[in-house]
Every structure is written in C-alpha cells, then in structure tokens.
Amino acid sequence: MNVDVLSKTNNPLIGRVEYIFELSYDMATPKRQEVRQAIVEKIGCSPELLVIKKIQQHSGMKKSRVIAYVYGDDETLKRIEPLYVLKRNGLIKEEKENKPDSNSHT
After folding, report:
1. pTM of this prediction?
2. Considering the domain 2-88 in this protein, what is its CATH number?
3. Nearest to 52 by CA among 64, 70, 74
4. Which of the ends of the chain has fewer CB neighbours closer than 10 A, N or C?
5. pLDDT of 62-97, one tens digit each?
C-alpha cells in the first residue's frame, strides 16, 4: 500500500493537525486498522492520537482518499471526537451491557 500526503493543515484552535491522504493499493480495499498502521508509519505519529475520520473509495480504481486527524493530546481527542469515531478507530473498547435475561424469572 502506498500512502501520499495530499494536504496537511495545522488547526491550533482545536489542537490537531488535519491530513488528507491518497492511498493506492494492489489488492482489495484495506481495512481501517491497516490504513491506520500505514499512516502511522508514513508520518511517524502516535497511533493513540490518530483518528481516521473518513475513507472515500474511488469508484473503479485501486485508490482511496483518507481524511485523518492527529491530536496533540489524548484528552483533547476524547473531548472532541464522538464516541462512535473512537470505537471505529479502536481507541476505546466497546463495552457490552450486562442486561438481565428477559426469559429468566428469579
């Protein structure tokens, strides 16, 4: 997988750097975790501070455009990003609720 940086914008108000990448690959569209690893290797950031916001597949091509944010600290990341984005990026574990079994009568 080849990763090219199309743009890099520093956003000091929010405390993050916003990137747009273009991925090119030979096989099937890579999984989000594979894309995260490739971006970490490319820009040398901490994986705990990287959030992939969107992966846009180019129709009929082996290319994708990725919008990603690298935050300055963990506290800012968790305050700004929605819970579903954190789960999707593997930054927090999805907790299963312990619901009582509705068929059991104790």
Report:
1. 0.81
2. 3.30.70.330
3. 70
4. C
5. 999 999 999 999 999 999 999 999 999 999 876 655
